[in-house]
């Protein structure tokens, strides 16, 4: 996890969009449970960027993406882009 370098925690997890395990997952939402514990929804950094760009994205997600950019740990290119 890279959270110790001042940025948000990024590590292996399930991307809700890619629908597979990825090595660069980060939290994008916190779902509350009515009769049990809540759940953290994760996405790869590329999809987290897409979520953060939405008008209704939580401020903490925008801050996490900005921290990744500042720390220089985020990939420059979208790994799903074939170009």
Describe this entry's structure for a reader:
The protein has 83 residues and is of the alpha+beta class. The protein has one domain. It has two helices and three strands, in the order E-E-E-H-H. It has a three-stranded antiparallel sheet. A hairpin with a 4-residue loop joins strand 1 and strand 2. The longest helix is centred in the C-terminal third of the chain and has 13 residues.
The parts where pLDDT drops under 50 for at least 5 residues are none
Overall geometry: globular
| Tally of individual helices | 2
Major beta-sheet overview: 3 strands, antiparallel
Structural class comes to alpha+beta
The number of distinct structural domains comes to 1
Oligomer description:
single chain
Write the element-wise H/E pattern from the N-terminal end onward.
EEEHH
The proportion of strand residues reads 25-35%
Rg (C-alpha, Å) = 13 Å
Q: Mean pLDDT, nearest integer?
A: 84
How many β-strands, per DSSP?
3
Strand line-up across the major sheet: 1-2-3
Task: Report how far the terminal alpha carbons are from each other.
Answer: 28 Å
Q: Which helices and strands occur, and which strands form pairs?
A:
Blueprint: E1 11-15, E2 20-31, E3 39-44, H1 45-52, H2 59-71
Helix pairs in contact: 1-2
């Amino acid at each position: 996890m890279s959270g110790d370098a001042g940025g948000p925690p990024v590590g292996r997890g399930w991307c809700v969009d890619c629908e597979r395990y990825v090595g660069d997952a980060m939290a994008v939402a916190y779902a509350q449970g009515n009769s049990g514990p809540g759940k953290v929804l994760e996405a790869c950094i590329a999809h987290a960027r897409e979520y953060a760009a939405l008008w209704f994205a939580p401020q903490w997600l925008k801050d996490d993406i900005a921290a990744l950019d500042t720390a220089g740990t985020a990939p420059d290119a979208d790994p799903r882009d074939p170009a």
